[in-house]
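Illustration: DUF4270 domain-containing protein.
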Amino acid sequence: MRYIICSIVCFLSIVSCINDKFSVGDNLTSVTGRSLIIDTCTVELHTQLADSSVTSGLSKVFEGKYNTGDLGTITTHAYFDFNQPSYSTSEFGSNATVAVKFDSISLILKYDDFRYGDTTQVQTLNIYKLKQIIELDDDDKLYSTNSVPSESEPWVSYKFNRPTKFYENDSTLEIRLPDEFGLELMRMMHAQSDSLDTYENFQKYFKGIKLSPGANDNATVNSFVIDDSYPVIRLYYRTISSSSTEKYMDLNVGTSTAFSQIEVDRSNTVLSPINYKNNSLNSKDCENKAYIQGIIGLSAKINFPYINEMLKMSKYVVISQAYLYAYPVLGSYNDFTPLPQELSLNYFDENGKAMDIYVDQTTSAVQSGTLVEDKVYNKNTYYAFDITSYLKQEIEAIGMNKTSLQLQLSDEDTSGTLKSLVIGDPKYSNENNRIRLVIYFITYDND
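Result:
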């Protein structure tokens, strides 16, 4: 036993649950086997940063600012434009049969169900008018690193609290726009201006808006719905003939060009060295932690560098089961930044690029880990993965054939949220928050 532990000291620190020897064979061959469990193995963790994320076509946009501590300060801006108003010539123009009186004009946003940050804090929403038309790239996409020039001073500033629960009248946020804008639209409709004929013509007149948080905000990153109904600029007016009738008309959002710009300031965090060029950090350089975050593009790369040392334990080594347990770092999540409900595994090739989704060969299903929460003692909260088939393949691979695992959020959370997770490596200070690999295996020796 002493020889075994010494020969694989870099690989494991505990080999336990060794049963009595057993023999299998016939009158020609006798084979002696032992069942063992390794419950502390060397697991290497890296934080990986992917390229910028696509933020157009998501059916949502992000706006807000929040200091996440270890992950840095996240600032998000939303950009979108609008279709021209559709108006009636019986109300506007030379053939109008009624008088029309302006009431007000507003931007109406609808909250998505995702939020990230402290909803108890008052936050500022600044609306800027764009100076250039929003243009998609050659692939008809826009990314988290894109931006569009806007006016230097806000068109409108508005302070609000995001509701934590939605009731009948608070699932939307309505912000009054300057009356001059509504009055100008009415004058253009009365004049039947060419600028209102097509979407392209209207873009030249009104290029769109940018939503940004206040410079000193530290509240919430909001998510707002983008669909055929929201956001909308709503013009309220009254028609006057024999009686007065309250009415409105909508300028609907251009859904294809709506996108979010996402900025992250990591200058005062352990993640400050990571960027799109230097896109990988060893956990030992990050206080023995690795970081995962959705649309920001952070994931954890996992290696088992000494797994082949198992082969030295006997003439024949067979893995029967292997489980990976990822434990969130205590204090890295709370009611404002709750843990994601699910994680998933991908392959990484030798260059650290994501390959095919890791599939459990026994079920042909995407390998995922569901959150198990210990809400009483807060010590046994984890995600678990069966990686038996992966380790069976990996244990005999060498050199460039070696792969890694990528731990990330589910596809939905990766592309459409800022949900995050911090996990400790095997040397993290709190032993209850360390990633852990448990292997059940059998060794055989010929008698």
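Reading the tokens back as a structure: The two ends are 18 Å apart (CA to CA).
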